[in-house]
Amino acid sequence: MNDHLHALIQCTQERWQPNIGDPHLMGWITVLGYGLAALAALSALIQTRTASRPAAETLFWYLLVPGLVFLMINKQLDLQSLLTAVARCEAQLSGWYADRRPVQVAFIFALIALGTALLGILAWLFRQSLDRLWLVLLGITLLVTFILVRAVGFHRVDVLIGTELAGWRLNWLFELGGITLVILGCRHAIRRSY
Question: Is 35 left (phi over 0), alpha (psi -120 to 50) or beta?
Answer without folding.
Answer: alpha
